[in-house]
């Protein structure tokens, strides 16, 4: 057995899985009935055209085999409802603004906000934007969901426990529901526009350099006609309600749970630059030990139970794909089809803007545009509210988008323009187009139609080709940069959108690999002044570490790729530790901190004491101490943002007169003071004995179901997964963002995938905490311990390998 396979096996979860991996194809070949040991379940389904099978492997991954495309996507919907009905039903109700019907009047404002962000354009143009089979796939998928929902509502299949806890029932779908919902997608940077206005008002626009570094190098200015102090801190209350998950709380806590906290929201939204993203890379055959390309991807989003993503295999004549997608959407967005492989990370296109309007003093439904007043478009919709009479919901829109805030006292209104309102921008739905491509040109054809989110799409094929393309609907801003709110009077308009050919891409690169990690990756000669793609990117630390490792290895193995996804080296840590090397102190806390950090290997390992000090230092102490010196008027606005550490480190490396007459000496004192404060903080949390300090004692992963506040104590415990000690942090490859208040993990790589392109059964994956949404299923939590310790399970593709690893065979026949 080769060394790479040995290392891969060591990453799996025990003898049973290892045995299945090593002997799966042999067993399938030798046994007359390879499914004989699997649990058999037979069921009939209304709407199915022909008999089919769903083979669920021992890791909870379903592999669907159907006789035609209609049945395949029908069964994908049916299976999503079988395994994740509460999750996808809530996704639909939230997206369409139907929460108050089920959960009462406390959710009426969130419903109104959600309805503001629905797609309301031409549905023919919408469906056409995704490619030739998008509507067909969606129709079949929804029919499958509805078949399961109808059986549940008729009592023919069990009602999942979540509905019993909430006192609700699942509802049927339409195909339009799948694409009209936009608010689960990721655009940017309206929250940063508001924050920049607040900083500019409080301390001048120059102070914003401590909050976020603009890339490529760029100097912004306050747009003509905008008073930064006119932007209220709470202006994004409706936007917050429209983009947040649904929160449940006991009656006494419900008001607080659903309230908008502008400070908390703006801080968390700004942190998404380094929280919500991904790593991916693709390696040419010439640089791998297998002689085949390797494609790796680990998307970073907020953790949840059930997981945001769902792994599924889809097989019918002429179509065979496997990978992960969002459970409420047909197809997959990350995976392979047997010929090509694909993975994605966020490419930080600025896809939205906040517009500020002067209102007509005589008519609050008119706003200044050009030389006159323009009428808002006003819609009235009926909203059902549990326990009350129906309500009339009034929704207002300008030519740019929904009105999200009205400042009556100052006669101003604010609206968001977003690519969400353009055809073809339902998040991730465009993957239904590219998942069946057979070569680079076919992949690019699909990418020309890709709308949202804007992505770094990496590609590999069985011929040995690799590539990368940045894709997404990109506004063309001729006379403004999108970094601050702008007057909505007609001076600041989008001039259409950039074409795919105006965005960067690469194919068969000389270096033999391509990697993205949400960093600024526009080419050095990119005409940014002409094509203002965006200026706010994740810190490049993750990408720097990934490229450092890949550049040093000319024969990358699958195990190497998995190790790199779990690498916890902090490049920002290296830079800060370098600044600490010449420092000394007689203060006991500072001395202890320096003793731990100076020799530290800059790894955010779960068992590291230095990592605990470092993360507590940069999360809660370095920024506040520094900003009190350099930008005291903006300190309260900027210091709470852990994401600002990137800008602060760059400043500490090159201090200027903002530090006073002796910048280096002032910088060194700030480092000492903040390190000492961090050590005191860690001492209070972990005790005085530094030999017992561990980052994993603070940094834990715990997956709490949203319904836990409504469940009884025993059921709430069943709904929760963890806690699990965990290494990593936001700016290391093993992305694991934590809450600053208690260091509990809340976002990062819940799904990982490493593909051996062409030898597909050797590919590996993990999805935490598990595949199933049923709290009483073994697959609800079985993958979490593996994920927490950097382990993977096989992502099986061939029918013999799948059959050998099948734990449950669901035999479906038409009703």
TrEMBL record:
Gene3D superfamilies: 1.10.1400.10, 2.30.120.10, Glutamine Phosphoribosylpyrophosphate, subunit 1, domain 1 (3.60.20.10), Penicillin Amidohydrolase, domain 1 (1.10.439.10). Keywords: Hydrolase, Signal, Zymogen. It holds the Pfam family Penicil_amidase. Residues 1-28 form the signal peptide. InterPro entries: Ntn_hydrolases_N (IPR029055), Pen/GL7ACA/AHL_acylase (IPR014395), Penicillin_amidase_A-knob (IPR043147), Penicillin_amidase_dom1 (IPR023343), Penicillin_amidase_N_B-knob (IPR043146), S45 (IPR002692). Belongs to the peptidase S45 family. This is Penicillin acylase family protein. It comes from Bradyrhizobium barranii.
């Amino acid at each position: 057995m080769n060394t790479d396979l040995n290392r891969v096996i060591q990453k799996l979860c025990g003898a049973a899985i290892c045995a299945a991996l090593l002997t799966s194809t042999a067993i399938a070949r030798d046994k007359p009935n390879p499914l004989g040991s699997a649990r058999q379940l037979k069921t009939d389904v209304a709407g199915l055209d022909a008999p089919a099978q769903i083979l669920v492997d021992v890791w909870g991954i379903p592999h669907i085999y159907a006789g035609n495309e209609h049945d395949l996507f029908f069964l994908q919907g049916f299976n999503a409802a079988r395994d994740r009905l509460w999750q996808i039903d809530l996704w639909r109700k939230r997206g369409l603004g139907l929460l108050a019907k089920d959960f009462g009047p406390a959710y009426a404002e969130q419903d109104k906000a959600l309805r503001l962000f629905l797609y309301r354009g031409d549905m023919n143009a919408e469906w056409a934007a995704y490619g030739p089979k998008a509507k067909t796939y969606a129709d079949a998928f929804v029919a499958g969901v509805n078949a399961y929902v109808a059986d549940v509502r008729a009592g023919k299949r069990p009602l999942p426990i979540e509905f019993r806890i909430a006192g609700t029932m699942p509802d049927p779908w339409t195909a339009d529901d799948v694409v009209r919902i936009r608010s689960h997608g990721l655009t940017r940077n309206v929250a940063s526009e508001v924050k920049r206005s607040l900083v500019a008002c409080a301390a001048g626009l120059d102070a914003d350099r401590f909050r976020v570094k603009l890339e490529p190098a760029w100097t912004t200015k306050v747009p003509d006609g905008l008073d930064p102090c006119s932007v209220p801190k709470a202006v994004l209350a409706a936007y917050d309600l429209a983009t947040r998950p649904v929160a449940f709380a006991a009656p006494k806590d419900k008001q607080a749970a659903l309230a908008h906290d502008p400070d908390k929201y703006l801080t968390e939204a700004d942190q998404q630059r380094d929280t919500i993203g991904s790593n991916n890379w693709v390696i040419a055959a010439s640089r791998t030990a297998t002689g085949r390309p390797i494609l790796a991807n680990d998307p970073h989003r907020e953790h949840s139970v059930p997981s945001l993503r769902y792994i599924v295999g889809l097989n019918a004549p002429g179509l065979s794909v496997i990978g992960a997608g969002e459970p409420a959407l047909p197809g997959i967005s990350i995976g392979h089809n047997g010929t090509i492989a694909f993975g994605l990370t966020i490419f930080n296109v600025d896809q939205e803007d906040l517009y500020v309007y002067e209102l007509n003093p005589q008519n609050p439904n008119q706003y200044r545009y050009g030389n006159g007043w323009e009428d808002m478009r006003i819609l009235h919709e009926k909203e059902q509210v549990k326990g009350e009479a129906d309500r009339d919901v009034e929704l207002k829109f300008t030519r740019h988008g929904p009105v999200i805030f009205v400042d009556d006292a100052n006669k101003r209104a604010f609206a968001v323009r977003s690519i969400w309102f353009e055809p073809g921008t339902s998040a991730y739905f465009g993957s239904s187009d590219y998942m069946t491509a057979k070569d680079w040109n076919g992949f690019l054809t699909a990418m020309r139609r890709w709308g949202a989110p804007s992505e770094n799409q990496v590609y590999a094929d069985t011929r040995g080709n690799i590539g990368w393309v940045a894709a997404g609907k990109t506004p063309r801003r001729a006379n403004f940069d999108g970094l601050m709110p702008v007057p909505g009077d007609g001076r600041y308009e989008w001039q259409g959108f950039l074409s795919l050919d105006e965005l960067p891409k690469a194919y068969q690169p000389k270096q033999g690999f391509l990697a993205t990690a949400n960093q600024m990756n526009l080419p050095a000669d990119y005409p940014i002044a002409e094509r203002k793609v965006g200026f706010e990117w994740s810190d490049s630390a993750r990408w720097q570490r990934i490229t450092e490792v890949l550049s040093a290895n000319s024969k990358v193995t699958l195990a190497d790729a998995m190790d790199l996804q779990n690498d916890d080296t902090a490049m920002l840590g290296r830079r800060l530790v370098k600044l600490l090397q010449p420092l000394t102190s007689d203060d006991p806390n500072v001395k202890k901190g320096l003793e731990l950090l100076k020799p530290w290997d800059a790894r955010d390992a779960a068992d590291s004491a230095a990592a605990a000090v470092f993360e507590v230092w940069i999360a809660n102490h370095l920024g506040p101490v520094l900003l009190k010196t350099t930008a005291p008027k903006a300190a309260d606005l900027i210091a709470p943002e852990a994401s600002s550490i990137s800008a602060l480190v760059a400043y500490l490396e090159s201090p200027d007169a903002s530090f006073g007459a002796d910048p280096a000496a002032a910088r060194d004192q700030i480092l000492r003071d903040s390190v000492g404060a961090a050590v005191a903080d860690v001492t209070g949390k972990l005790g005085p004995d530094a030999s017992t300090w561990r980052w994993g004692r603070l940094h834990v992963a715990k997956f709490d179901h949203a319904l836990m506040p409504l469940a009884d104590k025993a059921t709430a415990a069943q709904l929760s997964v963890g806690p699990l000690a965990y290494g990593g942090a936001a700016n290391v490859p093993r992305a694991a963002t934590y809450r600053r208040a208690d260091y509990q993990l809340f976002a990062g790589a819940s799904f990982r995938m490493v593909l051996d392109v062409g030898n597909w059964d050797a590919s590996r994956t993990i999805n935490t905490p598990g595949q199933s949404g049923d709290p009483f299923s073994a697959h609800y939590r079985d993958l979490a311990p593996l994920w927490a310790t950097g382990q993977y399970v096989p992502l099986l593709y061939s029918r013999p390998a799948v059959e050998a690893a099948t734990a449950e065979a669901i035999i479906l026949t038409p009703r």
